[in-house]
Structure formats: C-alpha cells, structure tokens
Amino acid sequence: MSGVQDSLEIKFRLIDGSDIGPKSFPVAASVASLKESILSQWPKEKNNAPRTVKDLKIISGGKILENNKTVGECRSPLCDVPGGVTTMHVVVSQPPQQKG
Fold first, then answer.
1. Counting beta carbons within 10 angstroms of the beta carbon of residue 45, is it exposed (0 to 12), middle (13 to 18) or buried (19 or more)?
2. Segments in the chain forming alpha helices (H)
C-alpha cells in the first residue's frame, strides 16, 4: 500500500454546521484523544458544550467511532482524500433531564 500517511488532517463538523479544525492527528492517535481535543477547542459561545468525552460521539464514514480505536483503524477509503482534510461529524449526547 503506497502513500500511507503518518498523520491525517481532520476537521470536526458540529451539529450547527460550524467546524473545529482542521488539525493534524497521528494515525496512532486514539478516538478518545480526538474527543479530548474537541473538548479543549469547543467554541466558548456555544451553549450545548459537552462536559466530558463521554458526551461526544464522532461519526466518520457513517460509523460511530469507538474510543479505543486509533485514527488509522477508523479511516475509510470513502472519506480519505490524499493530501486533503477528512471531515468527521460530532454529536453531543446530553444526559437525560431529571423529571422533578
């Protein structure tokens, strides 16, 4: 397999259509570390900010990525553009509201 990259340019598309990134991540980076990066870069003006990595889901190529997988394991030939930026979608799952 020729042209294998050591890193991937990834931007994260939020539910409102805005983006975080792009930023370069090594293919050995875990999905959990991507979520930590999203948390640290979350726009302060957004009111639906996740509190922990457990509040985030990352979707790439139509699949929800598992925290213990690496960026390299989650790559999809459909999403990879050589020398381009991969877009991954971010969903914030809020905890259920307590009924009083």
1. exposed
2. 31-41, 71-74
State the first-to-last Cα distance of the chain, in angstroms, to the nearest integer.
Answer: 58
Using DSSP's 3-state secondary structure scheme, residue 41 falls into: helix
10-residue stretch averages of pLDDT, the chain, 100 residues long: 70 93 93 95 86 92 91 70 81 65
69 pairs with which residues across the strands?
A: none
Query: Can you list the positions of beta strands (E) in the chain?
Result: 7-13, 19-26, 56-60, 63-64, 85-92
Domain 7-92 adopts which CATH fold? Ubiquitin-like (UB roll) (3.10.20)
Q: Is there a contact between 35 and 56 (Cβ–Cβ < 8 Å)?
A: yes
Q: What is the CA radius of gyration of the chain?
A: 14
Total-model pTM: 0.82
